[in-house]
Amino acid sequence: MNRRPPPAGRTNQRNTPPRHRPDAAASPLPAGSLGEALSVASDALKAVLEGFALNDGLAGLWQAYPELSPATRGAVQDLLYGTLRDFGRGQAILARLLKTPLAETRITALLLVALHRLEVRPDTAHTVVDQTVEAASRLAGGGFKGLVNGVLRNALRTWPQIVAALDEQEVSRWRHPAWWIASVRRNWPQDWPSILGANNAHPPMSLRINRLRGSAVAYRSTLESAGMAFEDLDEYALRLMAPCPVAQLPGYSEGLVTVQDWGAQQAAALLDLHDGQRVLDACAAPGGKTGAIAESAKVELLALELEPARAQRVRDTLVRLGLSAEVRTVDCRDTEAWWDGRSFDRILADVPCSASGVARRHPDIKWLRRPEDVVRFATIQAEILEALWITLAPGGKMLYLTCSLFPEENGAQLAGFAARHRDCVRAPFPDGSIERQLLPSSQHDGFYFALLEKTVR
After folding, report:
1. Which of 12, 44, 121, 406 is the S-S candidate for 51 at Cβ 3.0 to 4.6 Å?
2. How many structural domains does the chain have?
3. Active-site positions?
4. Are residues 234 and 337 located together in one domain of the fold?
5. Which pLDDT belongs to residue 22?
6. Mean pLDDT, residues 345-354
7. Averaged over 374-403, what is the pLDDT?
8. Cα 92 to the chain's mean position, in Å?
């Protein structure tokens, strides 16, 4: 599915940000040093500050820095994601330390990364300062070296006062934009602190066992033999107690298992799939739910994806899992371009959304999103629902799915659609509810589900 908004607002329309390596005339930072990690992380953060999505920023980062060791890459990613999770707090800290904002975005980014490291690893404070100054000496002609040194040493001297003042500010305390905090508090008056807290935490790593490639019992035994602790979620789902790189997962390349959030895994079961059905996955990338559908029943499956690169990811996922489906690169709203007139028994409408329920996996979203983006997404969602409804067979079911916490994209969207279509019934889930909202937690991300059934006239 596409999590990104249409080109508007502050999001940069170029896909790949420019890279700004240290000055060529300067000696390189020592390989594997904290300074190297701080510098590279600040390059990626600079792209986000300029409006690029984090995924776009990371896409070419490793190609731009091919000399980085795996350990340094991991350190860079930890610094970058941590800085973005705490971005509102970092901004507030930096504002207290600078008389005026800096014109050099790369130096601003470097200071933000360093301040994050100072807060989460105070035991390494003096090393952080020294290494950040070394990194600054190799950027922008070294002209900001003294400023960086002064700002960070001032931060160390006044840290208790800074923290006390920041805890009085909602944006710095909760690490979310003010409009986001207000919306979550208004819509979830009992749960809003835990929702925001979960959004700032590290996400869980859940696995879906491919039931067509072996037994769930056998795969669990494989994990146990590898010394990988896990928690059972259901027969074919589990959560690793300690996340690991995908390449280290036993059987991953052989298609025995897929990394997929436990919330997202529930989509296939809620679709009520049966052998012989014709099924549409309308917004399919990256292919996790497409694979889950194909694993669950012997169906005729069509997957649509707007972006060519993301459509290829769906194909690659299916090949790895040993599954088959037709994958087409097309806008699902343009039915004349892809629909042959044969109706579908089941449709998964995993629509583009604000991604407010998965912000911990994409921490830039909190700071790139604007309230008007939610309105634009709601418009796109309504267009998708209208287009797909005509392709659903009478008696067929459509599962509407978002990873959003905002009602404009969820319950309000579905209520409006049902009111416009007399042949639409809000079908109940097995527990009798007509909608299901999962809030971010230690076990899963935030998702919304609703099942629509087309009545037989």
Report:
1. 12
2. 3
3. 403
4. no
5. 57
6. 98
7. 98
8. 24
